[in-house]
Amino acid sequence: MKLAHKTAILTGAASGIGIAVARRYLQEGASCLLVDLKLNDELQALQQEHPQRVALLQADVTRREDIAAIVSSAVERFGSIDILYNNAAIFDMHPLLDESWDSFDRLFAVNVKGMFFLLQAVARQMVEQGRGGKIINLSSQAGRRGEALVAHYCATKAAVISYTQSAALALAPHGINVNGIAPGVVDTPMWKDVDALFARYEGRQPGDKKRLVGEAVPLGRMGLPEDLTGAALFLASADSDYITAQTLNVDGGNWMS
Ligand code: NAI
C-alpha cells in the first residue's frame, strides 16, 4: 500500500493511461478525484467499487473556473491534495504547411495551458498545506524530437518537459517533487485518431501505422496503458522522494523509426 492515506487528482482519467493509473493508485490505497470531460461508465464503475475513496468531477482543464473547481472539489471531499497526475491531452496532426491557428490553439490550450495552470493551482494548495507533494506531468517521446507531420503536438509535449524542470526547481524548497513521464507508443483510444490521421496523410491503410510502430519498438510491441502504471506509482510514492525535475522515458526502448 504505497499510497495509503494519500489523496490524488488525476485528469484525463476516463480513458487509456489515465484510467489504468487511477486503478493502480486505488489498489495502492489512495483516495482519488477523477477528472474528465465526460464521466463515462468506467469511471462510474470505479466510483461504485470504491465509494469512499473515489470522487468524480466533470471538468475541462482549459477553463479557468474548472481548474479552481478541481482543486476545491479535492479539498472539500478529501481534505488535502498529495498527488497530481496531470495527464489530460489531445492529439492532432497536419502537414506543416497546412497547420492552422485553430489546431495550434486547441492543442496548446489542453496540453500546455491546462496542464500548467492546474499544476500551479494544485501547487498553491500543496504549499499552503506545508507537507510537500508529488506532481507528475505526462509528456511524450514526441516532446523529445520533432516529427514532420506532428509539429504542434510535439511542441506541446516539449513544453511539458521544460515546464516540469522549471516547476521542479521553483517548488523544491516546498518539498514538492515535479517529474514527467514520456511514453513511446501506447495502445489507447488516442491511437484511433493517430492511426487514422497517419493513414490519411501518409497514404497508409488504417492499422498500418500501429503495426509499424509496434514492430519498431525494441521490446517488440506497443505499450499497454498498464505498462505506464509502475512509473506513475513510483513517481507518486515515497520511493521517489529524492528525484525531481526528471522526465522518465517509458517507451520499450525506442519510439517510431
Ligand atoms: P486518451 O485519449 O485515451 O485519454 C485522454 C483523456 O483526456 C480522455 O479521456 C479525454 O476526454 C481527456 N481530455 C481531453 N481533453 C480534456 C480537457 N480539456 N479536460 C479534461 N480532460 C480532457 O489518451 P492516452 O493515450 O491515455 O494519453 C494520456 C497521456 O499520455 C496524454 O497526455 C498523452 O499525450 C500522453 N501520451 C500518450 C501516448 C500514446 O501513444 N497513447 C504516447 C505518448 C504520450
Structural features, described:
With about 260 residues, this protein is an alpha/beta fold. It has 2 domains: about 210 residues, NAD(P)-binding Rossmann-like Domain (Rossmann fold, 3-Layer(aba) Sandwich); about 35 residues, no CATH class. The chain contains 8 helices and 7 strands; from the N terminus they run E-H-E-H-E-H-E-H-E-H-E-H-H-H-E. It has a 7-stranded parallel β-sheet, with helices on both faces. Helix 1 packs across helix 8, helix 3 packs parallel to helix 4 and helix 4 packs parallel to helix 5. It is globular, with a radius of gyration of 18 Å. The chain starts with 6 loop residues before the first strand and ends in a 7-residue tail after the last strand. The mean pLDDT is about 95.
Strand content: 5-15%
Instruction: Determine the oligomeric state from the structure.
Output: single chain
Give the end-to-end Cα distance, rounded to a whole number of Å: 39 Å
Q: Shape, please?
A: globular
Number of domains in the coordinates?
2
Ligand roster: 1,4-dihydronicotinamide adenine dinucleotide
Write out the strand line-up for the largest beta sheet, numbering strands in chain order: 3-2-1-4-5-6-7
Given helix and strand content, the structural type is alpha/beta
The CATH superfamily of the largest domain turns out to be NAD(P)-binding Rossmann-like Domain
Mean pLDDT: 96
| CA radius of gyration | 18 Å
User: What are the low-pLDDT stretches, counting only 5+ consecutive residues below 50?
Assistant: none
The CATH topology of the largest domain is Rossmann fold
Tell me what the CATH architecture of the largest domain is. Answer: 3-Layer(aba) Sandwich
CATH classification class of the largest domain: Alpha Beta
Could you describe the largest sheet, including whether it forms a barrel? 7 strands, parallel
The residue fraction in helices comes out at 40-55%
